[in-house]
Design a protein that fits this description.
Elements lengths: L2 H57 L16 H10 L2 E8 L11 H10 L3 E8 L1 H9 L3 E6 L8 H15 L4 E5 L10 E4 L30 H84 L1
Parallel strand pairs: 1-2, 1-4, 2-3
Antiparallel strand pairs: 4-5
Length: 307
């Protein structure tokens, strides 16, 4: 390859590397921001959950959002008879992110969803194009669909009100939240009833160490209103955490892809640099040869004149 062509290629590759490094820096900043937001929402969610649990233990509240409790159905035989005639009613919130590359990130979750909904009546809130495609393909009942372009910062707040209303009004027994995360290989997060929501999947902490002692607490003016407000806050913090984890996982995947591209690019630049050095040496040799020939010609001509 001609020297100028190699130099042009080297310049172009350097420009691409600069762009990749800029993209990497932006990804790292975004991941740092997401990590801080995640910590904030999870810490508050755990605080809310522990407060609600402590109040529920003290006052024995009859709230289906906290605990699905039916003493009559606790009898194993009665429960089996019930299951023969009625299906477990479930609400699923399935969130998918935009996949820029041909990766199979969601098939394991979809297999799990199909397995868990075989003997249940399942309704879906599909967030993302892939989630909608999956629900349509498997003929699930879609209560709400939100596309990638319609997602905004108010999504978590909107979902809290929608999920809470659907759960209480339509008598769902369980509410599941599905996201792509390395914190759970294929298991969904159960967000309702609250007692079944396992935050330990999302963060490696021991919730039992943060039990709140409410012995000296006095709640005004109405304990039911206070609990209702705390459940709203808990759900909003929890759903915010799950949505951030979904986008966080996607950001980390993009960082891995960026690092691979950077590595491949650096290898290509190294090859071009070697070719460039070889081309320069060859040019230097050609120049030396030409100079030597020129000098020899001058010497020969000088000797011929002297003769």
């Amino acid at each position: 390859m001609h020297l100028k062509d190699l130099e042009r290629k080297k310049t172009n590759l350097d420009n691409v590397r600069t762009k990749l490094n800029n993209d990497k820096n932006i990804l790292l900043i975004n991941i740092m921001k997401l990590t801080k937001k995640m910590s904030f929402y999870i810490e508050n969610a755990i605080l809310n959950k522990n407060l609600i649990s402590s109040i529920n233990t003290k006052y024995d509240l009859n709230n289906s959002l906290i605990e699905f409790d039916n003493k009559f159905l606790e009898n194993e035989k009665i429960s089996k008879i019930k299951n023969l005639f009625t299906k477990d009613k479930q609400l699923w919130v399935y969130v998918t992110e935009v996949q820029k590359y041909s990766t199979d990130s969601y098939s394991r979750y979809e297999k799990k969803i199909l397995s868990m909904t075989k003997k249940a009546h399942a309704d879906f809130i599909a967030i993302g194009d892939k989630a909608l495609e999956f629900c349509k393909k498997n003929k699930f009942n879609i209560l709400l669909n939100i596309s990638e372009k319609d997602r905004d910062d108010e999504l978590a707040s909107s979902l809290v009100q929608i999920v809470k209303a659907l759960y209480t009004e339509l008598n769902y027994k369980k509410v599941f939240f599905v996201i792509n995360t390395n914190k759970s290989y294929d298991e969904p997060f159960q967000i309702l009833p609250l007692k079944s929501f396992n935050l330990e999947k999302l963060v490696n902490i021991d919730e039992t160490k943060n039990i709140i002692d409410i012995t000296d607490f006095k709640i005004y003016p109405d304990i039911e209103k206070f609990i209702d407000a705390q459940i709203n806050i808990f759900l909003e913090n929890s759903i915010h955490s799950l949505i951030i984890e979904s986008s966080f996982y996607n950001a980390k995947n993009n960082l891995v892809i960026n690092n691979k591209a950077n590595k491949k690019l650096n290898e290509e630049i190294t090859k071009v640099n070697k070719k460039l050095q070889m081309a320069k040496r060859e040019l230097e040799v050609e120049e030396i040869v030409m100079l030597t020939r020129k000098n020899k010609t001058i010497l020969d001509n000088g000797e011929a004149k002297n003769e």
